[in-house]
Amino acid sequence: MGAGAAGLDVAGAVPAKRRRALAAKTRGGRPRQARRRAQRPTALQRLFRACRAVFKGPGTVPAPPKVALLRAMLDRMRLEDVGLSPHRFIRTRDNAAQGNLTITQRIIYKSNNFSMVIFHLPQNAVIPLHNHPGMTVFSKPLIGSMHVKSYDWADPDYPAALSPDDQQLRLAELVVDDVFTAPCDTSVLYPTAGGNMHQFTAITPCAILDILGPPYSIEEDRDCTYYADVPYSSQHPMTDNEQERPRLAWLKEVEMPGDLEMCTVLYTGPPISDR
Questions:
Q1: What is the pLDDT of residues 45-54, one digit of tens each?
Q2: Which residues contact 47 (CB under 8 A, 6 or more apart)?
């Protein structure tokens, strides 16, 4: 074989080195760069990995830097990142007009350390005032407007915490009483701060992505308790000095409201990998 034929593929007069390079670039039908882009984790997968690193199980509260990290990731989450479409919520508005106020939840993931859940509230639907015992909860509105009202327990040594006539009442401080419209920042509540007991009222059809760490568990004494709020002045008329104190209310434990309709539907959005 002459010198000019050295390095040629017998099957065709294309230099073997070049053919190997072309095959490597196009193996699988796509260039390597395109395959790398396709394998990039989704926003939901990245969020899941962060949750797995942040939540360490019952009895723990994430450190402030980790809370900031997770909150920043949630702030960037969109409705499409969990496989939902705004058009679906236009249809739910019509269902609400017909009296359907059923709240649905889609469980993306659940373990002993944390859960990822999407709540969908039709217009005028209400998630009643309830608590999150020993839990840190991130709530990210994805679409719609809702009114949020939340409380924390008042310090038992607080001067206003005098025993009311009704011994079933316990003093609480109002933390939030406002309307949130997506897109907006993620809110965070803690076991004893940030508005651990809250109520959601849908002004329009809305969806909320909740991260609960750890999730509810009857076996581990983290059951959900519902409350009714009673004006502070109903038990103790407020003096001029007390008018300047944080807004107060009495909370009374109640049974789960009989008109609360909630169901679980299958999550069909982008999958996550637990590996």
A1: 999 999 999 9
A2: 70, 73, 74, 77, 116
